[in-house]
Amino acid sequence: MTMNKTIAAFFALFLLTSTSAQADDNKFNIGIGSYTLVITDQVNTQTFSGAALVAGYIVHEFVSINTHVYSLTDESNQDMNGYDLTLRLGKFSSGFTAFAQGGIFSETLSSPTTTATRDFSATFLGFGAGYKWESVSVELDVSRRAIKDYQGTSTADIDAATSSLSVSYLF
Asked: How far apart are CA 37 and CA 126, in angstroms?
């Protein structure tokens, strides 16, 4: 993933969410978290894990736009760097939160043993839950990804899923 794509994703997020907000509402969030991607062909499983920068905007009590920018590594030291952009529908007021989500992702796989890279991008659907205080939010979300890019020319039955646990500051 190039730096330009990352900047474009954040810029798009904040342009899309530049509606007027009340001054005392904490609608923006930024935080950190863990991020895991699991790709399996029913025989072999490849697990990438690492850190993510999380950002978002609560458009309405029931609508949120969020993003993860992540850097992951698997057991063979391959790197998967990317981002996702998510539309969430659920309850985002103080207290317990629960939501359904869908969005897009883009990522690049690289290996320390070669200069070749492979790009993946597609859609995903998922759900999540958490708890929101006045200035802090904790969330766990899980998604299942469209797998066409991961599958390539293989005829194997491939599945891909992600999970993220994050803590965010609300402002």
From this structure: 13
Q: Cα(79)–Cα(73) distance, rounded to whole angstroms?
A: 5
Torsion angle of the four alpha carbons 34, 151, 83, 80, in this order, in degrees rounded to the nearest 10: 60
CATH topology assigned to domain 3-16+31-170 = Porin (2.40.160)
pLDDT tens sequence across 71-111:
999 999 999 999 999 999 999 999 999 999 999 999 999 99
Tell me the three-class secondary structure of the chain, residue by residue: CCHHHHHHHHHHHHHHCCCCCCCCCCCEEEEEEEEEEEEECCCCEEEEEEEEEEEEEEEECCEEEEEEEEEEECCCCCEEEEEEEEEEEEECCCEEEEEEEEEEEEEEEECCCCCCEEEEEEEEEEEEEEEECCCEEEEEEEEEECCHHHHCCCCCCCEEEEEEEEEEEEC
Is the pTM for the entire model greater than 0.85? no
C-alpha–C-alpha distance, residues 80 and 63, integer Å:
29
Cα Rg of the chain, angstroms = 16
Q: Cα angle at 2 between 11 and 109, to 5 degrees?
A: 125
